[in-house]
Amino acid sequence: MGKKEIAKNTVVFFLGTLSSRILGFIRDILIANYFGAAGLTDAFFVAFRIPNLFRRLLGEGALSAAFIPIFSEYEAKGEDIRKIINSAFTSLLIILAVLLLLGESFTPWFVSVVSPGFRKEPYIFELTVKLTRITFPYIFFMGMAILIGAALNYKRDFFYTSVSPVLLNISLITAIVLRNHFHPPISALAWGVFAGGILQIALHFWGAYKLKVLPTITTKVFSKPVKEALKLMLPATAGLAIHQINTFVDTIIASFLPAGSISYLYYANRLFQLPLALFGIGVGSVLLPVVAESITQGKREKTEENVRYSIGLVLLVNIPAAVGLIVFSHEIVDLLFRRGAFGYKSALATAYALSMYALGLAVISINKVLASLYYGHKDMVTPVKASFVAFAVNVVLNIILVFPLKHAGLALATSLASVFQFIYLLKHIKEKGYESTRFFPSHLKKLLVLNLFILVFMILLKTVMPYKPQFPLFKRAGLVIFYILTTLFAFYTGAKLLRIPELETLEQLVVKRRK
Fold first, then answer.
1. Domain positions in the chain
2. Inter-residue contact 13 to 276 (CB < 8 Å)
3. Which pTM does this prediction carry?
4. Which long-range contacts (CB under 8 A, 24 or more apart) does 342-349 make?
5. Which residue in 276, 427, 441, 515 could disulfide with 312, CB within 3.0 to 4.6 Å?
6. pLDDT of amino acid 60
7. Within 255-380, where are the H helices?
8. Band of the pLDDT at 55, cuts 50, 70, 90?
């Protein structure tokens, strides 16, 4: 698979994820409108975050990072990977069932650890426990779905894994519409998560059926390839655990800040996650099976070429995206969320956090790409060490920055910590026999010039056509859309004049698709 195939699958991932994120924004707008940014929403966000923690630890990153290289290795040996999938599915089924029982039994303890500040408000604490017990089975559904998704991604099909979150958002939006049929109404969101998990696993099963990798229960539990993958998962899970602990440290500290702080960070992070998911996580996910294959075949130059192209693609998109989120932070948040119970003050606080998160967007995206290279080498330890470095820096910076900047200081600490993670990953790349300079595109100066131009263009655009919160909704929406479309046109024109190679590859893909 070459650069064009990476671009093609990235576009597929982009479109699926974009659809999901658009619905996700609609969902968040509705939550902000009907529930605001207060204790009730804090309770739901914490309740959803707890099963999400385990889903990410045992699922997404660790599972894919461990199994895809194993699939590549054993298929190269002539093994039938469907037998590996069946063994892995049955083994994971047992693990998730035990985890579900433990989670439901110790829910109050989890809530106490995650949000100790809720103890001072008994009603909010008990509500969080209730909502968490409803959402916790989500890990069971998604754990199995993610394993199937790893097999689908290995088969170079990224459609189902990128589109399945759409079903979760549809389920949550439906729950919001039916909120008055639940008591308290906020519990509708928890049941929406539960139903969404069922829909997501159903979609993955359908994709596996079409690609002929549908798993079945087998007596060969914990086979040799599965044990190897689980062994790889341990350090990968530890790395993800460090990242999630980072997030929970932010939540713990934010629970002691004024009411709504957790919600401000949540809404800001949702906006920040859009470009990160579309191109940072997206490119990293597409790259993993590519580098796993080229490394298995001993094609080092091909590996370098694909990593270099992936980083160039990430930089092309996510640097201007970061600039846009910083310059237009208040306008975007104000338009999307300021209505109903979510007022002007909440919009300002959320925009403040968003601009701090955006500072680290490009670096965090590159870290995802570099991590995929290490995973392709079945090296899960180095990314773990890099995550630990970021965690240590984040804790120190949280303590320093939370006093002057409040919740926004927590967001800024996350961005700054990612720089230290990047330095560590880059420094140790030589241990794999690579020169770090070979991973960065030769046209970095062109990208710098392009983004300086975009920054000036955005500032001038806001100066000539200022946005004011008191404008009617249609006028505010028109201005923000005009800002985005005009900036995209200026960006495309500038990239075209500078002849940025990643843009040329994407253009060739579009032309080929039209033909």
1. 3-441, 442-501
2. no
3. 0.75
4. 342/32, 342/33, 342/36, 342/37, 344/469, 346/32, 346/36, 346/37, 346/260, 346/263, 346/264, 347/469, 349/260, 349/261, 349/264, 349/407, 349/408
5. 441
6. 54
7. 261-275, 282-296, 300-327, 329-337, 344-358, 361-376
8. low
